Amino acid sequence: MERAILRNAVIEYQRLGTGQPLVLLHGFPLDSGVWELILPLLEHQFEIIIPNLRGFGKSESRTSEYSLSNMADDVADLLDHLGLEKSIIAGHSMGGYIALAFARSYPDRLLGLGLISSQVIADPPERRESRYQTAVQVEEFGMESLANHMAEPLTSDPAQRAKSLEIILRQSTKGVLCALKALAERPDQTTTLKSLETPVVIVHGDSDLLIPVERAKEMKGLNPNSFLTIIPGAGHMPMLEKQAETALALLGFL
Q1: CATH 3.40.50.1820 is held by the domain 2-123+187-253
Q2: Which residues pair with 13 in a beta bridge?
Q3: What CA–CA distance (Å, rounded) separates 187 from 92?
């Protein structure tokens, strides 16, 4: 992977393919490896940029500030570094939250928005408190506690669960702790989604145990430019569980 030294972060990324620019943002507590299986289905239609978000993989924050808005700024800075004025921004779960933050801060740089297993609402108080408690457990018991807690809800596919576990366990404790706080404190982005005039592609598994499919249906109702694909049998990781169906949905941007 290549490395870009940006204003507030050092971001490692992969760039491949030809066509319309498409940035793929991974979820929590994962890295860009989650896109590996879907890339061959997209790289002949898109110029794909796949970063590891700050604190994940070998990407680092250069500041003590750490919010999803900061991470969206990193994406904009990476586009500058690559000489790209505009791009489609698509994110999985936390990556979707960051894509929404990008849309809010940089609407003129957005060619399209992709939300995969994500949502626009902020954490309710009980979910916010749960994230803080998870941070305490990770600090005390390490990444193994988080991996064991999240593996089953991420996917019911044994092979993809093993892959997800491998990805989680290679993340840094510091990055995960900072991301948990950022996730807990993220704002509601309903207004952002409502106001977008660019195409919005929403992809969700009907068996998602972490974010109910109802959230995807609600998002579809917020924006007339949105297209919803519900994938039967997919959980929270459709890009791993149902690669062809997820790729086909993203090809809807063309």
Answers
A1: yes
A2: 2, 51
A3: 17
